[in-house]
Each structure stands twice: as structure tokens, then as C-alpha cells.
């Protein structure tokens, strides 16, 4: 294949008995990482028969039992009937009531303590089309920008839809597809929906009636583009399965599917594991010497841009501008790699020049345009901040691979050894007023004991004050904030 453009993609699929990992590389640099644990499969796209367990009119929402450990959540905006309502403030009680059986599809995975979010607006993705069985529209993917191209593909697909009920959204892959391929996709989606309806009729709530494709097959369906150069898989079994699937549903990509059988692991050879570790840290180094600080919270994600050691501009104003420009590409990459969602606040280095601000914003818009996930971008605020929202459908990389720190109690910092020492001394004074032991014994880590020895004069003062001896014992198994005070 001849690649006239310098932009190309490689897809790496690594599978084990416990997980599947997919890396999307652009020009050999990782941009996206998808992980699916076999014990915790992504459930976005799955369809359930659920039972309404609680309706909350004040929040215009309801909780639905779909058979998972947490009840699913649905908002009034997620009802397909509501899309055709003329009234400004419809009540959720008009659509749903406790005890009702309802067909829903997961649109957002369980994240943290929140249950999955579901919708009655069912959609089933094929390779060329997305089928909307309860709608009657014919839409075109927003990624097809040209109005002429949009009308052209819409007219072509419309001519192929004959006896189909429901609506469709035309995907970008349909632009390069033949009429035969689009017709085959139509037939596949119709057959799939008939099977789903049949399963729903023979099952009671709560139950799963349709499971979306697993990650490897979903990768072939949703992530392979014209830029994809190769799809390398480190499992012969999975490679054969994907090849057989591609022969039926996407024959044009069969030559791109390869079995990777080298001794060095596929992720190690591409330095992916090191990139994952970097993506779990707060600091991201820029090539110029500047850096980003990325802080994730439950409410939002903040990204702070800093010049660091960069002094490459003609003057300080130019240095700031160059650093901010470079940061835009790094920010776009980190959004995808870390799968950051929700509200994102970017604090660029302050710029007075309005042309510089426009150039930075334009470069950021260009960089995020490659993202498969919907992003909205605001102008610079009066405080010099840029606000973005990125659609959140699954856990971020950090939430997927990490858990709250037991040592710092999720604060992200721990108390200094001096702070802990003074805390212990205050507690001893307090205990001395309630108890009358012969001796107080402090059991703590080596660093805490060293601090006590360094500031031994305070121990002496407290001993004189409480008129009791205080002894010190090192416990190597204790972390810095952990200690015990024994009353002997």
C-alpha cells in the first residue's frame, strides 16, 4: 500500500487469559489505550430487560435493576419518547413507573460508586451503519464534514433501504463502501435486531439480552480507518478469529491483520508499558523542557502548563507562546491516552498577545479534532483558562488501573515526619491526663524515630511535664503516618 501522507496508524492487540489490551499508535507513538479485563467486561452497548425500582420526580430520573451489583440510572433526556415532546418540562412519571419492565441499553459504564447510565434510545452499531430500531430518521456521521459528501452518501443509502423499519446513522466507513457492502450491513443489523426481540420475549427482568462485541472485534469494527497500516495480534487464536470475522464483515482489512509471534512481547517492543506508567503520573514532560501537571478529581480535571527549563524563544513572551503551542498537542494526546472525561480546565501560561491566544486555541482545536470522542472547546476566559468537556463513557486509565492510596487516604500527600512527631506528643499529653501508666512507648517508622532523636529536647520537656518516661521503638513495617502509643 502506498502511503502518500505521513500520517498512519498501527493497532496492537495483546491478549491473555485475564485481559485484552489495545493500543492505537499514530506514527509509532501511542495515542489511545483500551483495556478490558475478562472479569470486568465493558458493558456499554449491552441491552437489558430491566425493572424500575425507584422514580425520582424531583431529579427527573429513575433507578433500574438490570441485574448488576449497582442499580442503573436513567434521566428523562434518555427516553426516546421525550425527543418528540413539545412541552418544555415533561415529567418523568409520564414515561415510567415503579415495577415496570423496560428495555434499556447501557450508554455509560459504571464509574466509581455510580451505577451504569442507560437509555431507551436503542442503537446497534454495524460497520457501515448504526441501526435505530425505534426511530425513523436517516442521519450522517458528524465526521463527514462536506455537505456535498453528506448528501451524496445519504441519497445512496436511502436508495438501499427498502423494507427496513427504524432509522439509521451513516458511519464514515460507508463513504468508501460498495452498495453490496452497505446492503450486507443492513441485513446483518436487521437479523441481529430480530434475534434481540426474540430473546427479550423469552426472558424475564432483570436479564441481559444482547452483549456487544468484545474489545478485539469492537476494535476492528470501530477503530480501523483508511490510515490503519497494520493490525498486529499476539495470539494466534484471536488473530484467526478476527481474520474470519473480517472476511465476512470487512474483507478490505484482512491483509492488514497479522499474527505477532516474536519473543519480545508486543507491548514491550513498542514501549507501551513505559508509556502507561508515564500516563499514570501527574507530570508530563514536553520536549522543549516545559511540562504539564495533570490533576484528576471527581468533579473535573485540571491541566497546568509550565515553561520549566525551556528558554528557546527570542524573548520571554516568545518562550511562553512556543511552550503553549507545544502543550496543545501534548494535551490532546493525554486526553486520549488517559481517557479523561467530563469537565477539563486548561491553565495555559498567561499570554497578553491576542494573536498568540488565537493561535494557541486554533492549534488546540486542530489537535483534539483527531479524537474519536466528542469534545467541546471554549474560548479563553477572563482568567486565561480554557474549558473543555469530553464525553465520558468509561473509566479513565487512572481509575481503571489504580485505587485510592491507603497511606495518604487519597489526599495525594502525606504528613511530614515533624508533623507526625508533634501529633504524637500532643496525644501523649492528652493520654497522660486520663491514664496513669508507668511509661509511654512510641512505636513508629524509622523516619519518625529519627525525627524524635533529632528534636529530643521536646521529648525531655514533655517527660518533665507529664512526669513519665517516654521510650522509642522502631517498627520497620510501619509507613510514615502509622504509629502506636503503648501505655506500660
From TrEMBL:
Protein's recorded name? Ribonuclease G
Query: What does the entry list under GO cellular component?
Result: cytoplasm
GO biological process entries? rRNA processing
Query: One Pfam annotation, family name?
Result: RNase_E_G
- GO terms for molecular function, please? hydrolase activity; metal ion binding; RNA binding; RNA nuclease activity
Report the SMART domains cross-referenced here. Answer: S1
Q: Which NCBIfam families match?
A: RNaseEG
Keyword line: Hydrolase, Magnesium, Metal-binding, RNA-binding
- InterPro entries recorded: NA-bd_OB-fold (IPR012340), RNA-bd_AU-1/RNase_E/G (IPR019307), RNase_E/G (IPR004659), S1_domain (IPR003029)
Task: List residues of the S1 motif domain.
Answer: 45-127
Top enzyme class: hydrolase
Which cofactors does it use?
Mg(2+)
Taking the record's annotation, the residue ranges forming a coiled coil are: none
- Which domain of life does this protein belong to? Bacteria
**What is the species of this protein?**
Candidatus Kinetoplastidibacterium crithidiae TCC036E
The EC number(s) this enzyme carries: 3.1.26.-
Amino acid at each position: 500500500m502506498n502511503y502518500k501522507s505521513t500520517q498512519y496508524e498501527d493497532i496492537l492487540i495483546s491478549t491473555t487469559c485475564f485481559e485484552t489490551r489495545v493500543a492505537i499508535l499514530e506514527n509509532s507513538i501511542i495515542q489511545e489505550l483500551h483495556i478490558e479485563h475478562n472479569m470486568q467486561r465493558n458493558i456499554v452497548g449491552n441491552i437489558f430487560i430491566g425493572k424500575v425500582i425507584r422514580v425520582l420526580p424531583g431529579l427527573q430520573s429513575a433507578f433500574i435493576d438490570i441485574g448488576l451489583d449497582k442499580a442503573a440510572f436513567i434521566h428523562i433526556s434518555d427516553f426516546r419518547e421525550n425527543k418528540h415532546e413539545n412541552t418544555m418540562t415533561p415529567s418523568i412519571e409520564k414515561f415510567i413507573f415503579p415495577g415496570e419492565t423496560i428495555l434499556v441499553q447501557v450508554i455509560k459504564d459504571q464509574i466509581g460508586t455510580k451505577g451504569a447510565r442507560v437509555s431507551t434510545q436503542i442503537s446497534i452499531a454495524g460497520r457501515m451503519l448504526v441501526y435505530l430500531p425505534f426511530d425513523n430518521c436517516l442521519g450522517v456521521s458528524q465526521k463527514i464534514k462536506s455537505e456535498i459528501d453528506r448528501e451524496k452518501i445519504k441519497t445512496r443509502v436511502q436508495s438501499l433501504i427498502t423494507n427496513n423499519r427504524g432509522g439509521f446513522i451513516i458511519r464514515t466507513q460507508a463513504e468508501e463502501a460498495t452498495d453490496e457492502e452497505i446492503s450486507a450491513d443492513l441485513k446483518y443489523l436487521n437479523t441481529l435486531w430480530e434475534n434481540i426481540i426474540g430473546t427479550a420475549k423469552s426472558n424475564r427482568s432483570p436479564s441481559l439480552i444482547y452483549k456487544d462485541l468484545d474489545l478485539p472485534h469492537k476494535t476492528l469494527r470501530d477503530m480501523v480507518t483508511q490510515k490503519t497500516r497494520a493490525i498486529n495480534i499476539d495470539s494466534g487464536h484471536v488473530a484467526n478469529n478476527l481474520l474470519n470475522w473480517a472476511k465476512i464483515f470487512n474483507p478490505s482489512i484482512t491483509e492488514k491483520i497479522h499474527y505477532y509471534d516474536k519473543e519480545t512481547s508486543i507491548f514491550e517492543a513498542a514501549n507501551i508499558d513505559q508509556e502507561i506508567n508515564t500516563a499514570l503520573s501527574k507530570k508530563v514532560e514536553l520536549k522543549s523542557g516545559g511540562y504539564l501537571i495533570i490533576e484528576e478529581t471527581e468533579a473535573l480535571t485540571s491541566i497546568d502548563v509550565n515553561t520549566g527549563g525551556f528558554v528557546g524563544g527570542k524573548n520571554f513572551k516568545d518562550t511562553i507562546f512556543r511552550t503553549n503551542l507545544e502543550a496543545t498537542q501534548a494535551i490532546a494526546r493525554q486526553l486520549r491516552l488517559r481517557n479523561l472525561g467530563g469537565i477539563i480546565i486548561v491553565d495555559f501560561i498567561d499570554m497578553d498577545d491576542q494573536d498568540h491566544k488565537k493561535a494557541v486555541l486554533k492549534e488546540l482545536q486542530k489537535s483534539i479534532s483527531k479524537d474519536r470522542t466528542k469534545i467541546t472547546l471554549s474560548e479563553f476566559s477572563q482568567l486565561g483558562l480554557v474549558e473543555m468537556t469530553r464525553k465520558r463513557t468509561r473509566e479513565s486509565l487512572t481509575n481503571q488501573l489504580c485505587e485510592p492510596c491507603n497511606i495518604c487516604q487519597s489526599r495525594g500527600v502525606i504528613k511530614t515526619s515533624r508533623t507526625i512527631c508533634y501529633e504524637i506528643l500532643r496525644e501523649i499529653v492528652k493520654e497522660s491526663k486520663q491514664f496513669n501508666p508507668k511509661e509511654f512507648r512510641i512505636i513508629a517508622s524509622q523516619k519518625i524515630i529519627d525525627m524524635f532523636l533529632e528534636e529530643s529536647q521536646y521529648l525531655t520537656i514533655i517527660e518533665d511535664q507529664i512526669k513519665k518516661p517516654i521510650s522509642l521503638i522502631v517498627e520497620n513495617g510501619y509507613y510514615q503516618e502509622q504509629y502506636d502509643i503503648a501505655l506500660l
